[in-house]
Every structure is written in structure tokens, then in C-alpha cells.
Automatic annotation (TrEMBL):
GO annotation, biological process: apoptotic process; proteasome-mediated ubiquitin-dependent protein catabolic process
Lineage of origin: Eukaryota, Metazoa, Chordata, Craniata, Vertebrata
Organism of this sequence: Sparus aurata
Molecular function terms, GO-annotated: ubiquitin protein ligase activity; zinc ion binding
Domain RING-type: 44-84
Binding partners and assembly: Interacts with CASP8, BCL2 and BCL2L1 through SAM domain and also with HIP1, IFT57, ESRRBL1 and BCAP31. Interacts with NGFR; this interaction inhibits NF-kappa-B and JNK-related signaling pathways.
Alphabetically ordered keywords of this record: Apoptosis, Endoplasmic reticulum, Glycoprotein, Membrane, Metal-binding, Transferase, Transmembrane, Transmembrane helix, Ubl conjugation, Zinc, Zinc-finger
Disordered as annotated region, ranges: 1-34
Principal EC category: transferase
EC number(s) given by UniProt: 2.3.2.27
Protein's name according to its UniProt entry: Bifunctional apoptosis regulator
Domain SAM: 189-256
Amino acid sequence: MLHQMEWDSSDDGLGAGMDDPPQILEPAQSKPSTTDISEHEFSCHCCYDILVNPTTLTCGHNFCRHCLALWWESSHKNECPECREKWEGFPKINILLRDATDKLFTEVIQRRREEIQANPKISRSLLAFQRYGDNLGRSRTTQHKGAGFFFSGVLTALTCVAVMVLVYHWSSGVVDQHDPLISKPVSRWTPEEVVSWLDHLGPWAQLYREPFQQENVNGRLLLMLGDEELLKPPYNIENQAHRRAVLAELDRIKTLGVKPPQNLWEYKAANAGKSLFLLYALKRSPRLTLFYLYLFDYSETFLPFLHTCCPAIANIDHSLEGSFLNSQLEPSWRQWAEFLVKYLLLPYQLIAEFAWDWLAVHYWTSRFIIVNTMLLSVLEGCALWRLWTRATIRSLPDKMWNHLWKMLSQGFAFAIMWPFVPQFVCNCLFYWALYFSPIINIDLVVQQLMHPETQAP
């Protein structure tokens, strides 16, 4: 009975509901549509435009990637442009937010990206910002290398020890690589030293060794010899080319007062500070260094260098005395033209050609120099390519002027500090730059070729 009454009441309620007009239930919160989304919600607080490559900081604020890069480059601070809270690590692009803005504002995003790519200043800032992040990542990776980092430090320490041992071995007299006549005045030469000087002129000079020994020609008598004395007995140097070679060398030792250096080690012993300066300067600025030799060391170094790298095409005398005489002649206009082209475009090739000519004298050292010049040429080419691709070739004159000022200031500082630097330290720097600099340049070339977009212009 009660059950029947409950069923009837439920039927009445259902019937009443059916008789009433239907009611539409409104949900507590309606689903938003894309038309309700405003651009302000996806705008950058720096440029007040739609976010392009939105980057989220640790504080939660979002900015355009290029806006954040411009802010970082101008302020040099790792902090939020809005709330000034420092970010941790390197900010990354918010992929979810980027995809959302790309779908909602496709045309605007495409237009803004084209404007960003066309602006060289923004491109440089983005590259600098990315380079900062890459360097930060490398430093963190280095901190966690563990055993690899330890062995790298051990290798560096062993390299330093090897350089010091090499310097000690060569500076202690164990290996005598230079003639003492390069520092002894000619007027004090003994007859034996005069004969030794004559032997260094070449195999052709052996023909006239006996007359010099019989006459006991010392340094003072050697300085008084002229063309007539050499032609007449007892010397009897009737070969005109031989006589001219002896007279040319006599003029050199009269000018210098000592025997001129004939290889790298003799040049280093006679010009310790100058050799170290040239070694570093040829790496940093070969054009300025060659210009320096032209101004201040023309006959002694520049002329032999030019004749070696750009030999005369006509009337080439391949004999030793002919080569010696040719190195003292004024270059022809063809030689000057070839030299200037290489000087402007391929300065390191000039150094490589000069080292190649000295392979018979410096076997391994010349090879180290040739390899180093190849690496430096690649680095210079990469630098010019970056200037061209980044549309910053117009800044080349400013960069050249800054480089010139930097080299001149460093050279002036070197000239002042050189007398106070111990010789042992200079020798360490010399052999490090000569033999271990190619190893460092190999790493730089690999970085340039593997990650050219993250390198500084």
C-alpha cells in the first residue's frame, strides 16, 4: 500500500515536470572561446606586442626571446626586466606557450619574425645571448667531468713541465745551436773564427779557405779587404760571383759589427726580445708585423723574406752564392705585386712559404710553423665569413682601427716591460708559442667549424 502510494507520488512529480516548460540548466562556468582571448594576455611586457619565442624566467614572467636578449646585452644582468628577480641557469623557450601563440596569432607572429630576422642588431644580440648560454653550459659540464677534467689538468701540467725542461735543455748549453760569432765583434775575431765565417758562406767558399789560413786573416784584416785585394794574390778570387758574395757579406758584417744570424736559433740568440715579439705578433697581426719589418728591419730580415716568398721569375741563379746575392737585391715590380697580393689576402701563406724554404735547416720546427699558419688562415677566414653573413662588414674599418690600437698599445707595453722579464720566462713563452700554439689553434678551429653560430664576430 505504502509502496503504491510512493510510486503514485513519484508519477505525479514526473507528470508535473512534464507539464512545465522545459528549463535550460546553465553551467556554473561557460567554456571560453578563442574570440574571448585578448592579445594583451599574450603580450610581452618589454615590447608590448605578441610574444615571439616566449621565454619564461624563474619568476614566472614571459618575454620575447629577442627582448630578453636585448635587455641582457644592455644591462649585463641576469634578472627579470619587470620584477628584477635574478634567474637561475639559462632561460629556455616555453614550447607550450610558443605553440599556442603560433596557432592563435599566426599572421602576427610570422610578420614579427620576419622583422626580427631583418634587424642585424637583434640578430647579434640573440647570437651573443645564445653564446652566453653555451659557455654557461660548457662551464657546468666542465665542473662535472670528474676523471676527464682531472686528466686534462694533468696533461696541462705535464705540458708546462715539458716546456720548462726543453728550455733548460737548450739554454744550459747541452745543445749548442748558434754560432758565438753572432755576438762577438768582428774586430776581435781570431784567424780560426774568420775561416769558420768563410765556411758558413757555402761549399763554394772552401776553394779560398787555404789562402785565408796562410795569411792568418783576423777580424781587423778582414774588414780592410776590398774587391782589388780579393782579386789579386794571395786570395785569387777570380770568379766574379764568388767575389761579389764575399764582398756583400763583408758589407753586412761591417754594418752590423757581428756575424748576421743564419737560422732561427741564431736569430733568437742575437735578438731575444725581438724574436718573441715577432712570434706573437705574426700570430695576432701578420700584416702589421710585416709592415714593421719593412720599416725597421728592411735589409736584414724583410728583403730575404720577400725574395724567399716571391722569387724572381727571370734570371734565377740556383747556386748558393747566387741565392745569397739575390736576397740582397731590390725586388722587381712583379715581386712587389705578388707580395702585396699575398700580403693583403693571404699573409699566413707568406710565412708558410718562408718556413717551407727552411725545411732543410729546421726540419720539425718548420713543419710546426706551416701547420700553425694553416690553422690561423682558417680562423681568419671564419672571422671574415661571420662578418659577411651577419651583415656587419661595414663595421670592419672600426674593428681594424680597434685592432691597430690594441696591437700598438701591447707592443709599447712589451717594449717597456721586456728588460725586466727574466730570460728563462721569455724562453718558456717563446717555445710555448712556437710548439704548443698549434695545439690550441686546432681546438679553436674545431669550435669554429662545429659551432660557427655561437662564435663571437
